[in-house]
Amino acid sequence: MQLVVLGLNHKTAPVEVRECFSFSEEQVKQALKYFRSCEGFSECVLLSTCNRTEVYAVVEDADEALAIMRQFLQKMAVNTPDARRYLFFFTGEDCINHLFRVASSLDSLIIGEGQILSQVKRAYSLARDADSTSTVLNTLFHKAIAVGKKVRTVTHIAYSAVSVSYAAVEMAKKAFGDLQESNVLIVGAGQMSELTAKHLVANGVKTVFVSNRNYKRAVELADKFQGVAVKFENYIEAANKADIVITSTGAPHYMVRTRDVARLMPLRESRPLIFIDIAVPRDVEPEVGEIKGVTLYNIDDLEAVVATNIKLRKKEALAAEKIIAAERAELVEKFRYLSYQPVLANLRDKAEQMRLREVKRALAKLPDISPEERKIMENMSKMIVRKLMRDPMISMNEVTGTSKEHFYVDALCGLFKLEQTEESNNNEEKYCYRYARQ
Predict the structure, then answer these.
(1) I need a labelling partner for 113 at 20 to 30 A (CA). Which of 145, 180, 213, 340 fits?
(2) What is the rounded CA–CA span in Å between residue 35 and residue 52?
(3) Mean pLDDT over residues 395-408, rounded?
(4) Is the Cα dihedral 13, 16, 18, 21 positive or negative?
(5) What is the pLDDT of residues 255-273, one digit of tens each?
């Protein structure tokens, strides 16, 4: 059997192509059902997110499976006639390495993002519930999830902000520490404002005020976060109740004037006020930052923080790669033994039965030997069996993953007359794994 993955992601395909391959959970279930019905497929997991669609499978022949998987995905992308040029295909150890990097967020658009690990868990859960996984993919995905958790625990890959909206929140936390007693005014109700509000609420801010030229939109955004909508002409008055003002209006000129903030500050009785201007063009006049008690950050300040943090995450990614390499080697070694384990177990059982039978016969002819002599005879017979088994085990280990593997398995069964019972056949199908042709 061969382990394979076929898919595309943000590195291989633009968003207009990726969205053609996006699966709903119901479509995932249907796809798993389809692959289970395909000859040569024994296990399958389908991972589909906004940035990737990947089919992991255990198959009899990688080349034949590739054609079937390509054909299936091509049917999904009715508006992308040349879909195959966006696809990647990995086998064996490369497949293992890819999934480990995905689960550890090293293959994500933003290194260290936390959502992908839960998406991998969900994809595996759907496949398991659909009864489309067995020993190989169960082992692989359990290990991948554990590796993803280990990378996030051992390294600092997810510790720093790498988006402008989250960097704005981090700056607010740096100024006020715990945000649970802080009020925030958001001027503008676009996507960036919504993302920032989401991060602020996640960090426990006391109250979110939202002001926008379109008051209805301000109400809608405020309702999402149990906040308070403020009419646009009153946002300066609302700033008096806030500790942090975040602006992102998209206006072509300054919205927050120095004179207005200068009149506001005496009313605050020395309470500091932070402006975080994430708009381009800028919303806040630069001179606002010169007013006593006011701190002003603009988009360049935030992007500098993001750039620094991205460098830190890339440095942590190097440590993560070392973890993945070690865990991959461990799993590869485990898989090496899965394919011939049932055959060697049968051989060991047969050898042990012969040993016990012959020792019993010998002891029956030697009724007067001492317990110590009995022990010597037992140990000698065990060592003979162990040494006879050693060479077959070494030979099997050397050919595992090569074209000779099945020949050696068949030879052992033939030479030692190992019966292939229904149970052993099921075990062989369940455990069989070898590296795919590279």
Answers:
(1) 180
(2) 19
(3) 74
(4) negative
(5) 999 999 999 999 998 899 9
